[in-house]
Amino acid sequence: MTSSSTARGVQLQYRFLAEPQTGSQVDNPLFDLLSAVATQGSIQGAAKALDLSYRHLWGSLKQWEETVSQALVVWQRGQPARLTPFAERLLWAERQARERLVPHIEALRRELQRVMEEALDGSRQVLRIDASHDLMLPVLQTLGDAQGLHIELRFAGSLDALRSLAEGRCVVAGFHAPPLSRSEHYARALKALLKPGRHKLISTMRRTQGLLVAAGNPMGARSLADVAARGLRFVAREPGSGTGLLAEHLAAHQGFALSSLNTTVQETSHLACAAAVASGAADAALGIEAAAVRYGLGFVPLVEEDYFLVCLADALEQPAVRLLCTLLQAPEWRQALQDLDGYACPPRSGEVLSLTRALPWWTFRSPKA
């Protein structure tokens, strides 16, 4: 057989079996065959050791030679089979790799074993949440883990999170909006994604949004209009974000065009915005107070907003969603909100709210006959 230098890909697979493995044990049929031939010194002996027929082992070796494009066994009539120099090098290298990877292999086994145990534990609930970026949601994850609720969290813009809910890619979505009496921008963006009766809001937290500026606010910006008028370098948020929607509302309310902002950077989270200002890449950004504190920035409060979790009405009966509501009513959640700057716990945290009552800017008109 002619040799070939064509590289062969390596694929890793795993199985769930009753018998546990330890150390560097990793099943692979090729190396099991080569090791048996090397140890037994014959095809017949290797077949017996592996509890295979001579014909089956012979055919397997031939197939592997085709796969790796190399001869693996020296076949000479009347002499014991032996590995080719290539097969010996391959077997040696694989054994060395196993020994080097023992800690990683064991860690992977433990993690997979943990996942299986969690899946078999009927008392543990799993909940997928797609939500607008917030610093308290990872805290909620931690509280959930302690109470048997695994929250699979994915950050997205508020509108993207609500679209994910509409498309069935998550059970709960997270978005934020200020308690305004009227806002055409919020109504236009959210009315298509939230329907009274179909969706239910879960009161979660209240937080403060404002301008993230350098410590001491050397530019003296007091509003988003100031940022625009003075040509300050501004960090925009990605399309579909709740903070981007807030910027649209503020621009309309303060009487300037959002396009007049000197946008130099676009980021996808409050911390990324704060980092941009702290590094000097920008002069101002919209963000939450906790992000400003974390990066030692100045903060100009502009608006308080409510952060809601939302699900379909029939999802409220799911055990995972019920447990989520219980977590949001727990003293540990209230204390966690008090411990972080710019957050407050709403009086009805964890309670299910009527969509039309929780969003006072929402207005509905019956279609004309």
Q: Which tags fit this structure?
A:
369 residues, alpha/beta, Arc Repressor Mutant, subunit A, ten-stranded mixed sheet, two-stranded antiparallel ribbon, 15 helices, 12 strands, disordered C terminus
SSE blueprint:
Elements: H1 29-40, H2 43-49, H3 54-68, E1 73-74, E2 82-83, H4 85-100, H5 102-120, E3 125-131, H6 137-146, E4 149-155, H7 158-166, E5 172-177, H8 184-190, E6 199-213, H9 224-229, E7 233-237, H10 242-254, E8 262-267, H11 270-278, E9 284-288, H12 289-294, E10 298-312, H13 319-329, H14 331-339, E11 343-344, E12 352-353, H15 355-358
Parallel strand pairs: 3-4, 3-5, 7-8, 7-9
Antiparallel strand pairs: 1-2, 5-10, 6-9, 6-10, 6-11, 6-12
Explain what you see.
- The protein is α/β, with parallel strands linked by helices and 369 residues long.
- It folds into 2 domains: 86 residues, Orthogonal Bundle (Arc Repressor Mutant, subunit A); 235 residues, 3-Layer(aba) Sandwich (D-Maltodextrin-Binding Protein, domain 2).
- The chain is 41% helix and 20% strand.
- The chain is built from 15 helices and 12 strands.
- The strands form 2 sheets. Strands 3, 4, 5, 6, 7, 8, 9, 10, 11 and 12 form a 10-stranded mixed beta sheet that branches. A two-stranded antiparallel sheet has the order 1-2.
- Helix 6 links the parallel strand 3 and strand 4.
- Helix 1 crosses helix 4, helix 2 crosses helix 3 and helix 8 runs antiparallel to helix 10.
- It is elongated, with a radius of gyration of 30 Å.
